[in-house]
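Dear colleague,

Following up on Tuesday's group meeting, I ran the structure prediction for the two-component complex that the binding team flagged. I've pasted the input sequences exactly as they went in, so you can double-check that nothing got truncated or mislabelled along the way. The structure tokens for the whole assembly follow below. Feel free to forward this to whoever is handling the docking comparison.

Inputs:
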Amino acid sequence: MKKPNVAIAGLTACFGCQLTLLDCENELAAMADRFTFAYFPMGVTTRTIEGDFDAAFVEGAVSTPEDLEMLVHLRSRSRLLIALGTCARWGGIAGLKNNEPRLPLAETVYGGDAHHIDTFNPGPLHRFVSVDAAIVGCPPEKPDIIATLAALLAGTLPVFTAYPVCMECRERENLCLLIERNKLCLGPLIQSGCGARCPAAGMVCEGCRGPAAETNSVAQETLLREKGFTRDEIASRMRRFSWEWDHDQDH
Amino acid sequence: MTRTIELKPLTRVEGHGIVRVYLDGNRVENVELSLCESPRLFEALLVGKSYREVPEIICRICSICSTVHRLTSLAAIEQAFGIEVSPATLLHRELILNGGQIASHALHLFCLVLPDLFGVAGFTELAEVAPDELKLGLRIKGAGNLIQETIGGRTIHPVTLIPGRMGKYASPNALQLLHDTLAPLLPKAKEVCAIFAAVRPLSPPVAPLSPLALQGKNVPYLFGDILEMAGENSAAVADYRKLIREEYVSHSNAKTCTAAGKVVTVGAQARLSFTPGLSPAASVELAAHRERLASADIRGNNLAQAIELLHAIERSLDVIALLASTPSAPEEPRDFVPHQGTGTAAMEAPRGTLIHSYGFDSRGICTTADVITPTAINQAAMERDLLALGRGMDGADEAELMHQMEMLVRAYDPCISCAVHLVRQDERRGE
């Protein structure tokens, strides 16, 4: 079988999703053996996008004309386009003030030079192109990346769990930080697949994987309000990684 | 007739960068290094957020440096509120800082630099031409990541590092596993020094460094409270603005920095140029290469990172032993009340000095934020060296020129996603 041709590119992001791939220390040699990384500037000296790809993994949100150009280019060259990580899937941390106009934000950082900066509100890939699959997480979990690559070899795409982090957390029999410690834990609402990593370390779920498909966010918000958290605190936490999440409109 | 050639994008570095070389005939007229990462406006994102959220948000600036960003922000927050942390917490933080150093240096040396030594395009081909070296590098990198995951709860964007204490202490079993993973790597790390000591640059030398690094009394390597420059100029971290000046340049999204009016360099080689208190084995290696490192241009940085790798492994083993011998009862949250104030802290990130400075209001809400990263500090030196290299290689083959230039930039181990947006907050706001 011909090795699948893969592109891995980053837009507006921290490069953590691509680094997670490079952090697969035990699998990296096997990946190099089974895939052709035809475009992967972070890991391999490839400067031009040539030929067609079987799959393009794109990390990051779209926030500049160059981001958009790269995204459209990869979409047009690739059979599958896979959103790699929470920024690509949900907009991510860079968009956490998308409810505010961009120029004043840029002025906060660049002062009077802000008008030189060509930037718009960071958005997820699906706002601009069709996306075939998504790996979530900030950063993603290694097994999700490996499962996706393995699925590609088998000619398919992986199926990820649809239930929230709470399910995995209960399975691990962790102390419930929300009920028993009255902490602002987002476990009941967030897409699972991390094995409830943070609650298992005694830390709240900060929501880095984005909303799960079916959750009762109104009930969660009511519970948090009863526990004394303010509306602003709750909104700030819920929108940290997915600012478009209309959490108080869910049913 | 002027023409331009470009390295676009710079490869095997973290983030998006471009080198533009302006040629008149065959003569290099000018070189521009453009750090063209999309601006993410992190400092603006922090304003209005609670001090509790600040470390969780700011670590997302950069993946490779997420641990040190988070640690530096904690130190700045704790300084603002006058919080003292326990010795056990400090040891955990030192251990994870070293874990990040190991992972980052191993990634740089083995996945990003090593392909150049074997004349291949990346790790994919290394798997064929140098499988043993790649395997060694990945093993060391994995050990650094294991430290980060064990102490931080996650390799990238660690979660247990919070203001005032550790969210979780490492268990005796976890410490034992770390010890067993790291101990066999100590002799291997000496081999790494030998690999990178054997490399000599093939293109003409550029200027030796004007180093800047963090120093302090009675603090471990990579920590400190003085920004030290060779010669007479140095400043307390709290006074960093008096020493370091930033300037916006139109071809880059990161501001360039100068310290006391000079172009300075930060990073492993700069750190080793002072008198660092390294571990025994690393001190031996440093003594063997000290003169060479002192006279070398930035291409000595790869060897310097190899020596630091050895130190980080040896020091981590010491810290693990200290933690294992200290009873680690879970720490109760320290009582502290956020109040209006400012805090500034610095740490040595793998690629150089990193500074965080915040202001908070009486409720602990962030009113100002300023982050200066090593790559932003190094940008001016990178451009200067690229121009010198281009002039020194007058008439050279174009492909070879660009290849040598990319290797030169790579030696700085730039982290471009950190550097962009890491420019100062407009002081008119919030002050």
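Chain A touches chain B through 63 residues (CB under 8 Å).

Cheers,
M.
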